[in-house]
């Protein structure tokens, strides 16, 4: 009852993942755009509504095709959803797709082949981008769920973005907060995912700053002796 | 005036603790369930009320039996409460029992004998689960203490859970806050216990992310040279 | 223009500090008690008022005597206030005295000579105690400054303690906040001093937890091989 | 298409930067003073208005001259804005100038040639000063943008400073929050810049405290043996 595929299955899976990671990232951005159009366009704006529906469903179909292909390539069968649980969650809730960005980020950097950023800068860039996209997705979802509620404090998309900023940084002013059940569920998810990532940004920045100052100490002595 | 038991007493105590840790964890979950039923069931629902009372008191009796057995096995006599002060606190306030989860967690992992998670993942899993259970227990207690107060902002159990999420992540919107004395004492306790544990989750996640990126650096060179 | 005293001056100063640290700590507690009585006692309760005035001024006189003695022992003259700036600040604002607790803590532990706590536990104990005393002093000061203001949200001492808890943990509900100028100055000071210390508690706890899990890894192998 | 200038260009650039860093820092302080006068002086106070305009524009001209000189010295041509993107941002938004303080701080310390602070103390001093100046600049900007809005909660400059304190420490009471679009943009920027820096302060303090306690452990043994 091994949860790990054989070596050739792994190789096939890796090749597939390397080839699809950038297209899937673009599909993820299109999905987010489609969702944004659906949420933000006025309700009687027919062309926008159709465009957004097409974008959302066609990109989701791509995600499904990718998931099924990887399930078959892996040779894991019914154990795939449990082993690759993050992929399963991301398939069902595509707004969480930024969480898989770590692979895309590596792929993009590998292709450009430019002098790589140092370790801390890369952690900060990756975690910062993921947090930004997650926060944007959460602001869209919360705006969609809240703005028609009678006693809502989040009434415009600007309020929702402001709420997302105040939540991710744990400032939490409380001047704009979700009041519906599902809005609060999204908010709790944003706190859980986002805070850990923001902790990574802060931690990396702190380590990097200490490194910068420590390196200067090493450079200084010859200047004196 | 040594606070440490002799070697054979330690061995007996260890054997007892290893045998009882999983049953006690299940008893702790039953206690929490009983308390949840007592708090959340409507007041005239007689069968639920009886069930919850039975659960709470019978599990607490188990905790007492375990405490007394360990007190006698340890051979420490009247010094036991001071040496094992965390156990004493947990006996008197069984809602704090999640704090003892570290032993249970180890025991469960040892039995399943599966490839162990890495260090950071284990710290995150343990601290995350403890925080989750503590937050649930605090939400129950605060709901119980607050929801009948005239000027309360925590009126439903959903409000209490929302308050616990906002408190544990230090977001603190302030749209739902305890107003009674005992509600605020519970809240202060949740802040003190929970924040340290959440700091552990964030810190471990940050360290793990840096480790993941650092490991990739080691893998990359052969790809180039 | 050396800022450092000679070796025999240092020895004399060290001896004086070792002898006075516990009495000064007790004087600090008496000062806090006196201030608490002055703030919390009803205004027409004459005996309490006199007792608190006596306590506050006599302990402050002790602090002054200690400061002048150390100034003369150090042989630094007019440079003493600049070199020992923390002592100067603490003399002028005795409510900040918990900040000097690190020396007391060491002295007490040295005397009891019991098996010392590990590094992280000591940092946590020291920082936690300092934070607790600073928070209590800030709650007293804010209550004193705020509770007679017409539009204050801090009206009882319980409110002030609740505000201090929510501020130190950075939860910041905002249901009780200072509104006067000096109340906000005290609050900003509490944020600045307290948060750094609380960061130390969280950081130490996180490091300690990782250490506990790492040590278990070392213990486990023999159990298997 | 190298982004790095040749060695002699680097040497010339470094010499220019070393000579200008202290004058530029003073110009930055003058800019901030001029902006503060413009924001805080009553609107009909003609002399103050003129002084502030002169200060702001003449210092900005200095920044422009410095930027153009460095652009020409570097020999990078049109690639300069992209390579030195932080300098470009700081030229366009001079209120962000504290972010470049790390160089100034080093320069000042080098000149005074006094026994250097340890690593953590320097990180704390640098990050603390940067956070303080950024917070002051943000408070000025938010006060300027908000105080004439009808439903503003930030009405005096004191409110704006109080808001900046509560935001930078992530306490976020919510009793004073920006309500206009641009006010919220400034606030989001303050959260993003400030929190990372404050994380550096907290992290360094925590590391320093652990170091202090660890060093004491090393000193203690001879006292006993």
UniProtKB/TrEMBL annotation, chains A, B, C, D:
<keyword id="KW-0407">Ion channel</keyword>
<dbReference type="GO" id="GO:0008076">
    <property type="term" value="C:voltage-gated potassium channel complex"/>
</dbReference>
<feature type="transmembrane region" description="Helical">
    <location>
        <begin position="22"/>
        <end position="41"/>
    </location>
</feature>
<dbReference type="InterPro" id="IPR013099">
    <property type="entry name" value="K_chnl_dom"/>
</dbReference>
<keyword id="KW-0406">Ion transport</keyword>
<dbReference type="GO" id="GO:0001508">
    <property type="term" value="P:action potential"/>
</dbReference>
<feature type="transmembrane region" description="Helical">
    <location>
        <begin position="119"/>
        <end position="143"/>
    </location>
</feature>
<dbReference type="GO" id="GO:0005249">
    <property type="term" value="F:voltage-gated potassium channel activity"/>
</dbReference>
<keyword id="KW-0812">Transmembrane</keyword>
<dbReference type="Pfam" id="PF07885">
    <property type="entry name" value="Ion_trans_2"/>
</dbReference>
<protein>
    <submittedName>
        <fullName>Ion transporter</fullName>
    </submittedName>
</protein>
<feature type="transmembrane region" description="Helical">
    <location>
        <begin position="53"/>
        <end position="71"/>
    </location>
</feature>
<keyword id="KW-1133">Transmembrane helix</keyword>
<feature type="transmembrane region" description="Helical">
    <location>
        <begin position="185"/>
        <end position="210"/>
    </location>
</feature>
<keyword id="KW-0472">Membrane</keyword>
<feature type="domain" description="Potassium channel">
    <location>
        <begin position="136"/>
        <end position="210"/>
    </location>
</feature>
<keyword id="KW-0813">Transport</keyword>
<dbReference type="InterPro" id="IPR028325">
    <property type="entry name" value="VG_K_chnl"/>
</dbReference>
């Amino acid at each position: 009852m091994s949860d790990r595929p054989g070596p050739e299955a792994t190789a096939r899976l890796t090749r597939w993942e390397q080839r699809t990671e950038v297209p899937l990232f673009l599909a993820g951005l299109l999905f987010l755009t489609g969702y944004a159009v659906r949420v933000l366009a006025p309700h009687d704006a027919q062309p926008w509504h159709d465009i957004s529906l097409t974008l959302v469903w066609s990109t989701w179909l791509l995600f499904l095709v990718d998931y099924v292909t990887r399930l078959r390539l892996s040779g894991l069968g019914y154990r795939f959803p449990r082993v690759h649980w993050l992929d399963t969650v991301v398939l069902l809730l595509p707004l969480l797709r930024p969480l898989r960005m770590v692979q895309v980020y590596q792929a993009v950097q590998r292709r450009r082949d430019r002098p790589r950023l140092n370790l801390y800068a890369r952690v900060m860039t990756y975690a910062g981008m993921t947090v930004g996209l997650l926060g944007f997705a959460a602001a869209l979802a919360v705006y969609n769920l809240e703005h028609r509620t009678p006693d809502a404090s989040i009434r415009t998309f600007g309020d929702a973005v402001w709420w997302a900023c105040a939540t991710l940084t744990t400032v939490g002013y409380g001047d704009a907060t979700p009041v519906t059940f599902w809005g609060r569920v999204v908010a709790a998810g944003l706190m859980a995912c986002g805070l850990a990532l923001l902790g990574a940004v802060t931690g990396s920045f702190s380590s990097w700053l200490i490194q910068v100052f420590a390196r200067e100490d090493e450079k200084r002595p010859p200047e004196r002796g």
